[in-house]
Amino acid sequence: MATLACRGGQPVRTEPFPGWPVWDDKEREALLGVLESGKWWYGEKIREFEEKFAAFQDAKYGVLTSTGTAALEASLLALGIGAGDEVIVPPYTFLATASAVLTVNAVPIFVDIDANSTNIDPELIEPAITDKTKAIIPVHFGGYVADMDRINEIARKHNLHVIEDACHSWGSRWNGKGTGALGDCGVFSFQMSKNITSAEGGILLTDDEAIAETSRSYTNCGRGKGSPWYTHFVVGGNLRLTEFQASILLAQLTRLEQQTLTRQENAEFLNAELEKIDGIITQKNDPRMTRRAYHLYMLRYDRDAFGGPTREQFLEALTAEGVPASSGYAHPLYKNPVFQRPIADGPESCPLSCPFYGRKVDYNAMPCPVCERLCTEEAIWIEHPVLLGTRNDMEDIVAAFRKVRDNVAELLA
């Protein structure tokens, strides 16, 4: 009988790992309280969560939005970024990091990532800066904080804005300060898969009151602080959150600290054990990252060192042993059809070739080899709910990795 479960053997684990979302009577009572209050819209729960989450991340101001994408768009508008401007972004991220740039009619410029952190490589940023560059959007991917010291240094040198895409980093800290206000501003997502969730939602954080108020105006139909209700100052949208969602987030926030510490402790155990296995490369933490919120537990797979199976063969074997793992993004963001379509010379091709830009964009000429290798050969993702398990759960993960490695010959037979 085959040893590996994918060859007919018994799996290491048959019990499920922790599910998501986590909720209890706190959420139930919070929702019922809003329902019975009759105050369902944009009121005290919104303000309470904005203040508490900003404080949790060591920021001065918070502005809730309907989604993380909306928060990104508002941040760009608040910083005056628009038609014809370039914004530097990494290619290993969700679409919204770049689509928000397109929405304000600016142009995303992709810069490759560092293999260990999976974040934008700071040393590749300066060569990508042109006379049209206005901002950098580093992504704290999986909760691993980008090198904000170096990124801010480059931004100051070239008079650029820095917007943190912190949508994976609720609780992460850099040199003791929470993400979100390490640059000009930062944004978070509360979508269903996220470590703190209200099904949808987002927030912009900043230490700059003017950015906070301007972004709130853009998300609140262009209204101004303290102005009459039907007085509008900018072309804003209705990008607000409801009191129901804010009440759920307030309940979720009560667990976030302990959940963050549990994920970090379990990830550190996995790192210590899995790095002993040939072909499995764990992330080495930057000491300036004084706390990491794990949205994803990231690994890299070295096919040759592991013994020859493709990453897909390895993942098939690992998941058969009961460990929910995946390869993540199938390709860099710039290989999505929205960036690959032919770009004409006229205004019909805006925003990718906007007449305000005056240049053509060919994303095939922006190769990011580290990102491409990660997508097609190396990346392994284990999602954050798994890290809320017990030490025994983590030991099962290690046992499954070891079992596949010890019986690698079965995958090659």
For the structure shown, list the relevant keywords.
413 residues, 14 helices, single chain, 12% strand, globular, Aspartate Aminotransferase, domain 2
Name the overall outline.
Answer: globular
Major β-sheet strand ordering: 1-9-8-5-4-2-3
CATH architecture classification name of the domain at 25-252? 3-Layer(aba) Sandwich
Low-pLDDT parts are none
Judged by helices, strands and strand pairing, the structural class is alpha/beta
% residues in beta strands? 5-15%
Note the gap between the termini. Answer: 14 Å
On the 0 to 100 scale, the average pLDDT is: 95
Radius of gyration: 22 Å
State the helix count.
14
Into which percent range does the helicity of residues fall?
25-40%
Order of helix and strand elements from N to C terminus:
HHEHEHEHEHEEEEEHHEEHHHHEHH
CATH level 1 name of the domain at 25-252: Alpha Beta
Q: Compute the number of strand runs.
A: 12
Which fold name corresponds to the CATH topology of the domain at 25-252?
Aspartate Aminotransferase, domain 2
Tell me the name of the CATH homologous superfamily of the domain at 25-252: Type I PLP-dependent aspartate aminotransferase-like (Major domain)
Give a quick account of the main beta sheet: strands, pairing sense, barrel closure.
7 strands, mixed
